[in-house]
Amino acid sequence: FQSLAADSTIGADTSAWLYGRIRFLHHPGGPIPDTDRYEEALLRLARISPDVEMAGAYYRELKQAWRWSEIEPELHTLQLHRTVRVSPIWALLRIWLENDQASDSERFGMIIDYLSSAPGEVIDRADLNDIRRLVDKIDDLPDAAPTLAGRIAGRLIVETGDGEPFDRYSARLVERLFAAGREIPRELSTAFLPRALDPQLSPAMFHQLEDLLPSERSARQRTAESLSEQLHDLDEQSLRAWLSLFPVELHEQSVAMSQQVVAAISAPPASIDLLDELKVVAQVALWGDALPQALHRHWIGIMRRHPGLLGEYIQDALEAEPPVMELAELAFSRMLEHASPRDLISFLRWARGSEVVRASTSITDAAQLFELLIQWSTDQQATRKSDSRDASILRLEFEEWCVANHLQAALQMDETHYRTIVEKCIVRVRQNSG
Q1: Do 49 and 58 form a contact (C-beta atoms < 8 A)?
Q2: Cα 303 from Cα 273, distance rounded (Å)
Q3: Are 18 and 4 in contact (CB under 8 A)?
Q4: Between 351 and which of 137, 159, 168, 367 could a Cys-Cys bridge form, CB atoms 3.0 to 4.6 Å apart?
Q5: Span 344-372, mean pLDDT?
Q6: Are 281 and 261 in contact (CB under 8 A)?
Q7: Pair 398, 425: CB distance under 8 Å
C-alpha cells in the first residue's frame, strides 16, 4: 500500500483510497499500530484533499493544536507541487485563524504576511466563503495590506454576477481602499472599471459604485488618477460614465490623468455636451506638459472627421510657443482628406485673416489659393449682369468644386500654377453652369 500510494503515475482518487487503508491499518487502535506510518498517511491525505473541510479534518486529526512554526513549512510544501494545493492551504489558514491561543495581532499578522507573498492561485482559486471569512475577521486588512486587500476585492468583484450589487465584503474593501488615496492595486482597477463603465449598468448599481468613491476631493482625485491607468477603448457611453464619476474639474488638475483619458478614446462622441467636456480634457492633455507626440497623433486621427475640432487644434498648435508646425500641418492634411468642401472653406476663411497661419507653409499656400478663388469670384459678381442670387450660387459652386477637386494638388505648385488651376476651374464651372 505504501509504495503504491507514493506512485506518481496513479490517480488522486486511488492514492486517497490507498492512504485511507494505510491510515486504518496503522491507527493506534488499528490492526497494525504504527504512529509514524499513521501520521504520514494523515499528512498525505490532507495534502491531496480537494476539499477545505476534508483537508482540515485530516490536519486536526494529525495535530489538535498547530503552531505557526509548524504551519508555515507545510504551506510552502503545498506550494511546491506542480499545481498549488489550494484547499489544504486554506484548511491550514482556517485552523490558524481559529487558534484562540494566539493573539489577534499574531494570528492576523502571520496570515497577511503569508498571503501577501503567496502565489496568485491561492487567492484566485480560493473558496469565496474563506475569503469573506478572512475579510470579516481582519477588519484593518485594507490599511495593513492594501495590495492584498485589492487582490481580494478584485476577486470578489469578478465573482459578482452581472447586474448584481457588490456584497458587503467587497464594498467595504473598495470603499476603504479608495478613501485611503493610495495607488489602487491593478487587480482591483481591472475588476472595478469594466463594471463602473458598463453601458448596461442599472442606475441603482451605478449609484452604489459612485457611493463607494471618496467624497473628499483630493482622495477622489488620487483614486481617479490611479484608475485612469487601466482605461482603454473608451466609447461615448463609457466616457460619459467616467466623466460622471470623475468630473472634468478633476482632469483640469492632472495632466497625466487627462492624457490617459485621451489616449483611451476609441471614437469621438456624437453628443455636443460630451464633446465639449472632452475638448477641455484634451486641452489639458495635449498642451499642459511636455509635448506627447504619440498622443497628439492619436487625437488628430480620432478627430479627423471633425473639421471644427481639427481647426481648433491647428490654431492651438500654431499659437504654441514655439509653434508646432509638423503637427499643425498633419492635422491640416487630415482635414483635406476628410472635410467637406463647405467645412474646408470655413477653415480657409479663418486662415486668410490669421497672423499665426503664416508660420505654416502648406496652410499659407492653401489660404493664398483660396484668396485667388475669392478674388475671381468677386470680380465675376461685379461684372455679371444677372441678379446677385445667381452670382452667389455660381460663387459657392465654384468654391466648392475648386476646393474639393484641386486644392491638395495645387498645394504642391507655385502661384503661376495656382492661376492655371483657377483658369481650368473657371472653364469647368462655366460649362456646368451654362
Answers
A1: yes
A2: 16
A3: yes
A4: 367
A5: 79
A6: yes
A7: yes
- Prior bond of 322 cis (ω within 30°): yes
Instruction: Examine the pLDDT at 68 and tell me if it is beyond 90.
Output: yes
pLDDT in tens, 198-219: 988 888 889 999 999 998 999 9
Mean pLDDT for 184-208 is: 90
Angle at 383 between CA 377 and CA 387, to 5 degrees: 85
Alpha helices (runs of H) in 229-306, residue ranges in sequence order: 236-245, 248-251, 255-264, 272-287, 293-302
For 358, list phi and psi in degrees, rounded to 5: -65, -15
Non-local CB neighbours of 238 within 8 Å, separated by 6+ positions: 197, 199
C-alpha cell at 126: 480560493
Q: For 99-111, give the DSSP string.
A: -TTS-HHHHHHHH
Map grid coordinates 487644434 to a residue.
313
Please tell me whether residue 356 adopts helix, strand or coil conformation. helix
User: Using CA atoms, how far apart are residues 177 and 153, in angstroms rounded to an integer?
Assistant: 10
SS3 content of the chain, % helix, strand, coil (to 5): 75, 0, 25
Task: Give me the percent of the chain exceeding a pLDDT of 70.
Answer: 83
The SS3 assignment for 265 reads strand
In eight-state DSSP terms, residue 359 is G
Rounded-to-integer distance, Cα 248 and Cα 245, Å? 10
- pLDDT tens column, 17-39: 887 888 888 888 888 998 898 89
Residue type, 190: T
d(CA 305, CA 336): 10
Cell numbers representing residue 313 in the block? 487644434
As a whole number of angstroms, the distance between CA 111 and CA 93 comes to 7
Residue 5 near residue 19, CB atoms below 8 Å: yes
Q: What CA–CA distance (Å, rounded) separates 117 from 126?
A: 15
Quote the pTM value. Answer: 0.78
Helix (H) or strand (E) holding 348: helix 341-352
Distances in Å between the Cα of 22 and the Cα atoms of 30, 52, 337 are: 10, 22, 81
Q: CA torsion sign, 200 to 204 to 205 to 209?
A: positive
